[in-house]
């Protein structure tokens, strides 16, 4: 797809530091990563939403990311490995794999607050829904 940085890499129109490639997926070192020892894995087919991938392709993307996560752990020994799909950034489904060395290396904007002029993060700022609300969500997610 035009103007898609991942498609440009797949098509050889942009350079990348390739970690892994097969007929279905590619894994590279991302340009804009919080930590350089990160990876982003994406299918070679341009599909915007990760949840629109065929399940077998999504599983393959995540399996490649899992293997790279183990490699990051062996090579760089961070405290933890984070993995995730956040759905923003490049509009081409992708799976992020990154080292973590602090509980707040991955944060949600709802965790942020300002204290004494500094932005801080805490889980205490995340609302805890009622049991009824959580049961209603669980019931809705159990449906086919
Ligand atoms: Zn694309």
Describe this structure in words.
The protein is an alpha+beta fold. It has 2 domains: 5-102, 2-Layer Sandwich (HIT family, subunit A); 107-144, no CATH class. The protein is built from 3 helices and 7 strands; from the N terminus they run αβββαββββα. It has helices at 5-10, 55-76, 131-142; strands at residues 18-21, 25-28, 39-43, 80-84, 95-100, 112-115, 118-121. Strands 1-2-3-5-4 form a 5-stranded antiparallel beta sheet, with helices on one face. A two-stranded antiparallel ribbon has the order 6-7. β1 (18-21) and β2 form a beta hairpin. The chain is globular. It starts with a helix and ends with a helix. The structure holds zinc ion.
Outline the low-pLDDT stretches. Answer: none
**Outline, from the CA principal axes?**
globular
Instruction: Write down the oligomeric state.
Output: single chain
Radius of gyration: 18 Å
CATH-defined superfamily of the largest domain: HIT-like
Summed up, the domain count is 2
Distance between the termini: 32 Å
The SSE order reads: HEEEHEEEEH
Strand order of the largest sheet: 1-2-3-5-4
Mean pLDDT: 93
List the ions, cofactors and other small molecules found in this model: zinc ion
CATH class (first level) name of the largest domain: Alpha Beta
CATH arch. level architecture of the largest domain: 2-Layer Sandwich
Give a quick account of the main beta sheet: strands, pairing sense, barrel closure: 5 strands, antiparallel
